[in-house]
């Protein structure tokens, strides 16, 4: 069954009654957010082979976390059943050779090594995003937060909220307007920088190089559509799956498939031109700039058709008024962390965030 439904049932039917009996005055929030394909409701049968099963997160006040977390863990270890809806509730110890991976491990009797993780709200968001939830995020701070992680903390589900977890998730649900515009402009700028290179490589007989550039452009187009539809994209494994669920995918997905499956740069150009026109129509429908032409044209007289992404970037940047963002417009717009880098360690390790912030100073 879907992992998110499994987690909610596990809380409602097993964990909640135990907490009510043994800690009747406990204030807490219960949820499943953060890492895991099931959080985004994208898990499959294969997802069940690691870090998946009857699991959830329990958020406590700082005082209760210090004084009761060990007792809560012990009570749940002894009182939870060894299976829930046919799945073991016991997990292996974290595997230090595999990034702390845990798997379901059946046992005949308790106590069990359950996967009810305890946190404070502040501790979780400090660890996962390296932010202080007691302070408002500055505009530049938003640019240092990976989109896939923002999606993870605003996806999932809150099962019970005695501490205000939903209010934090609402604050992170989407970018401030001018931050959004700046990131939009940066992706348009990326398209403008590479759209002519696909044809240039192919023109010289380098079809492999042309195909690689086309793939990069397809990814930028997809990420731009996520931004236009105001939805954070997930990490690479699920990018195409999540894109399929976007409104624009009905028109764009077949075109992008044609780009990726084309055998020559001329074919790629034909399909990319169609994709660019659809993108431009979507941009104009947003109403964030004056209408811009959705027709492709030759690249400065060379035989390559482009939409000139720089036109869209320039028009968008002119609409930004945020005093933290306007100084960044004096340089080429690099966007947020995931626009200028796809390094997994930099995106996943929240300790990099203060370093990344220096890019904008």
Helix residue percentage:
40-55%
What is the average of the pLDDT values? 96
Q: Would you tell me the structural class of the helices and strands?
A: alpha+beta
Count of all domains: 2
Termini separation: 47 Å
Low-confidence parts: none
Rg, Å, rounded: 24 Å
Shape: elongated
Extended strand count = 8
What is the helix tally? 15
State the order of secondary-structure elements, H for helix, E for strand. Answer: HEEHEEEHHHEHHHHHHEEHHHH
- Measured by DSSP, the beta-strand proportion falls in 5-15%
The main sheet orders its strands as 5-2-1-6
Question: Sheet bearing the most strands, described?
Answer: 4 strands, mixed
Topology:
Blueprint: H1 3-22, E1 28-32, E2 55-60, H2 62-79, E3 83-84, E4 87-88, E5 115-120, H3 121-129, H4 139-143, H5 147-154, E6 157-161, H6 165-171, H7 177-203, H8 207-228, H9 236-243, H10 249-261, H11 265-286, E7 297-299, E8 302-306, H12 309-317, H13 337-340, H14 344-348, H15 353-357
Parallel strand pairs: 2-5
Antiparallel strand pairs: 1-2, 1-6, 3-4, 7-8
Helix pairs in contact: 1-2, 7-8, 7-11, 7-12, 8-11, 10-11
Your description of this structure?
The chain is an alpha+beta fold. It has two domains: 3-171; 177-360. 50% of the residues lie in helices and 9% in strands. The protein contains 15 helices and eight strands. The protein has helices at residues 3-22, 62-79, 121-129, 139-143, 147-154, 165-171, 177-203, 207-228, 236-243, 249-261, 265-286, 309-317, 337-340, 344-348, 353-357, and strands at 28-32, 55-60, 83-84, 87-88, 115-120, 157-161, 297-299, 302-306. Strands 5-2-1-6 form a four-stranded mixed beta sheet. Strands 3-4 form a two-stranded antiparallel ribbon. A two-stranded antiparallel sheet has the order 7-8. Strand 3 (83-84) and strand 4 (87-88) form a beta hairpin. Helix 1 crosses helix 2 (62-79) and helix 8 packs parallel to helix 11. The radius of gyration is 24 Å and the shape is elongated. The relative contact order is 0.12.
